[in-house]
Amino acid sequence: MSPGELLLEPFSLPFMQRGLAAAVLVGLSGGALGSLLVLRRLALMGDALSHSLLPGLALAYLFFGQNVGALLVGALLAGLLTAAGGALLSRLTRLKEDAAFGALFILFFAAGIALVSHYPSRLDLAHFLFGSILGVGPEELRFAALVSGTSIALLLWFRRSLALHAFDPAFHRATGGRGGLVHVGLLALVVFNLISALQIMGIVLSLGLFILPAVTAYLWVERLAPMMLLSGALAALGATAGLLLSYHLGVASGAAIVLTLGAFFLGSAVLSPRHGLAAPLLARWRTGKRVLHRPD
Amino acid sequence: MAHASHHILRFRSVTVRYGRRVALDDVTADVPCGSLVAVAGPNGAGKSTLLRSILGWHPLSAGEIRIGDAHTHHQLPRFAYVPQAHQVDYDFPATVREVVAQARWPARRPWQRLDAADHEAIARALAELEIGDLASRPIRELSGGQRQRMFLARAVAQGADIFLLDEPFAALDRRAARELTHILRAWRAQGRTVLAALHELEAAREHFTHALLLSTRLVAAGPVAEALSEAAIHAAFDAAACVHEAAPPVPRTAIFPR
User: Fold this and answer.
1) How many CA atoms within 13 Å lie on the side-chain side of A36?
2) How, if at all, do strands B217-223 and B210-215 pair?
3) Which residue of A251, B27, B53, B211 lies most exposed, with the fewest beta carbons within 10 A?
4) Is B110 part of the contact surface with chain A (CB cutoff 8 Å)?
5) B27 within some domain
6) Are B152 and B176 in contact (CB under 8 A)?
7) Is B30 within the bounds of a domain?
């Protein structure tokens, strides 16, 4: 088989086409969103949030089957309960927000696993946890397009508030910004994008599509807008390459995408000329070349 | 200065409570236009609370803050708030010009771009604080003093009349502190008013014209020499020490400029 066929042949299948389109769409908006999560130091909180969606999804699936609307509402309720519960616990008890969040999300995840394991014939645990590209039907693709389009539009519309709030919350507030609203809005966008990524990535890995390209971009660029653009582009590229790997090697699509993005990240962590592990060596080599002079 | 029309800020019986705790108690004072005011006092005296209540962040339990005076330029003075320098993550991907440009963002609608007047104000602020040549540098490359000047430039670009600075000398070495003093004196000459929360009385005496000495209540107010007299400082700091006697001493974290 020629290299061209290796790259193109998988995407002649309709389910691969839909999977690819959905993955690229979610990657574009999720990668941009991931940049904000990384800069706000919410990367781990986002991961916790993704796990806490399981009971909502399981309940929705149990009652309404494979219905995008029901899954969305279920996941949204579970996500909001965790986020609001964490905020409430940190206000009313001595717990800090990350501790309250960490305690709640594992509770929600366990409740989800309990539900799924109690109805093994009707719910496939592996399907929820690891996703399945076969599950991306026309309806799921439409939902992914809607979520990505809306997310990108909202990120553009609120770009200044989001950037100010991430960089300098006190100044944001002093100039009339509403920090709480920006925070909740950002988390809500994350939940929507997580649900959109669910079929391809699965609950356990879906945040990887957001965070890995963001940290990779962070190692290369010095401004926020290029970081978000690069991160979105990397996520889309990684999703495409990951789906190809998944097809040829028979690996779960989510894992293949995360591993591809992980390779980008590890390569950047070593090679980035200004922020990578090799950066000090590179700097020494450069100054060495400059001060080197041969004896006459 | 006795005439009320020259006071750009007037506090009347200002009281702020957080739940049951009283952070500011019945503070009455005037801030003359064009003065450099050190808001001094021990930790927990209400310095930051006073600055933030000017911005309207804390509802006043009692009293009022009157802003502006009869001067035509000062009927609706504008505020610029400069947060403590170490509250910001300097690894954030942004250039110096972008941070100074943030001054003009809040006035623009989401679909609007910054216009020529905005860019003019940004360029003037960069030039005034002498960081024009650093404009396209990433902020992580700045020294402590340069960081501070970047935030002062952002405040200037806001077109403010009153500048509220939270612990401006906290993260600065001697040279950067001297530079800041020069900047503040120049601002004073231009008729700008500065209120700065300070925990170091030395800095207050050296660089400021007026002082408000707080210890939840107002201990003294007026020109620095009077407001920071030995008796007043004793009243503010030693009275507070009695209140906080039970609390264990907390080591101060040192902040070193890179």
Assistant:
1) 25
2) antiparallel
3) A251
4) yes
5) yes
6) no
7) yes
A194 within some domain: yes
Instruction: Quickly list DSSP for chain B.
Output: --SGGGEEEEEEEEEEEETTEEEEEEEEEEEETT-EEEEE-STTSSHHHHHHHHTT-S--SEEEEEE--SSGGGSS--EEEE--GGGS-TTSS-BHHHHHHGGGSTTS-TTPPP-HHHHHHHHHHHHHTT-GGGTTSBGGG--HHHHHHHHHHHHHHTT-SEEEEESTTTT--HHHHHHHHHHHHHHHHTT-EEEEEES-HHHHHHH-SEEEEEESEEEEEEEHHHHT-HHHHHHHHHHHHHHTTTSPPPPPPP----
Q: What is the CATH number of the domain that holds B60?
A: 3.40.50.300
Which residues span the domain enclosing B232? 1-77+162-178+191-258
d(CA B233, nearest CA chain A) in Å:
30
Residue A137 has pLDDT above 80, yes or no: yes
- Tell me the two tokens of residue A254: 């989510």
Query: For chain B, what is the domain count?
Result: 2
Q: Is residue A21 part of a domain?
A: yes
The ipTM, to two decimals, is: 0.83
Percent of chain A with pLDDT over 70: 97
Mutate to test the interface with A, among B82, B92, B97 (most CBs of A within 10 A): B92
Give the count of Cβ contacts less than 8 A between chain A and B: 62
Amino acid type, B228 = L
- Which residues in chain A are closer than 8 Å to B86, comparing Cβ atoms? none
Interatomic CA distance for residues A80 and A124, integer angstroms: 24
Chain A CB within 8 Å of residue B138 CB: yes
Smallest CA–CA distance from A164 into chain B, residue: B102
CB-CB under 8 Å, A160 with B110: yes
B82 in a domain, yes or no? no
Residue B2 in this model has a pLDDT that exceeds 70: no
pLDDT beyond 60 at B243: no
- Tell me, yes or no, whether B98 and B61 share the same domain: no
**Cα–Cα–Cα angle for A285, A288, A291, nearest 5°?**
155
Q: Which residues of A touch B (CB under 8 A)?
A: 39, 156-160, 163-164, 166-168, 170-171, 173-177, 218, 221-224, 226-227
Highest mean pLDDT among B78-82, B84-88, B194-198: B194-198
Beta bridge partners of B130: none
**Considering the domain boundaries, does residue B87 fall inside one?**
no
> What pLDDT, on a 0 to 100 scale, did the predictor assign at position B57?
84
Pair A192, A26: CB distance under 8 Å:
no
* CATH code for the domain of A93: 1.10.3470.10
For residues B44-58, average pLDDT: 87
Q: Give the model's pLDDT for residue B178.
A: 87
Distance from CA of B30 to the nearest CA of A (A): 22
Q: Does the structure show a pLDDT above 90 at A204?
A: no
Res A259 pLDDT > 90: yes
Question: Please, which pLDDT band fits residue B74 given cuts at 50, 70 and 90?
Answer: low
